[in-house]
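User: Predict the structure for this protein chain, please.
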Amino acid sequence: MKIATWNVNGLRARQAEVLDFIARERPDVLCLQEIKASIDQLPFHLRDIDGYWARWHGEKGYSGVGLLIAKELHPEQPEFVHPSFDFEQRVVSADIRSPLGALTVASVYVPNGGKDYTAKLRFLEAMETWSATMAMAGRDAIVCGDLNVARTEMDIHPKERKPNQVGARPDERAILERFLSHDLVDTGRALEPDNENLFTWWAPWRGMRQKNIGWRIDYVAASTRLAARARQVSVQREVGTSDHAPVVADFDLL
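Assistant: Here is the predicted structure, written as structure tokens:
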């Protein structure tokens, strides 16, 4: 099973890139963030992508997430859900069937906190409660997206490290760790624990992306049972013109 996540930073501006990515990778699940469009603003070829069930959850120019599920993986249309704490088009999830049984998949965009840090902490705390609820129910889950927190200093290039900057503060990192503690594994770091150049976002100036001077803030978090079957998690730094790169995780569930 192939799971991909990508903060596209404007779906309409990058629709050709997204469609090319889907045609090339054929992910079983695709999670998109910052689509910055409501469904009525999307062209019809994006609203209904061949071979996928899709839910678009956003508004013009602001945030928004998308979740695509391959019909080959899940022949019947799944029920798409927005958790009760999702007040600003930041989360969409669905319960699907996988070769290992029932599975919740989710696309998440955590606010960056630059304008309202308190709101970011509230969202992270609600997200942590949500992960605890799924774990208590014994539900396998894969939560993907731009979580806007670098877990450790290793997840920020040395040239980008600054004291007490948003995205790297102890309190937000602590909540992210609690979120993961509820039977979730950061698959990218689990597979590459010593990779100091594993970044997913780069400031869009001074060739930061080409030089790989960035942050790792995009994640594929999977339940322990699923994470043990993760074979590869790759960051496709050369793909697209968003300031984020697609992250693709391959799981061996057979």
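DSSP finds seven helices and twelve strands in the chain.
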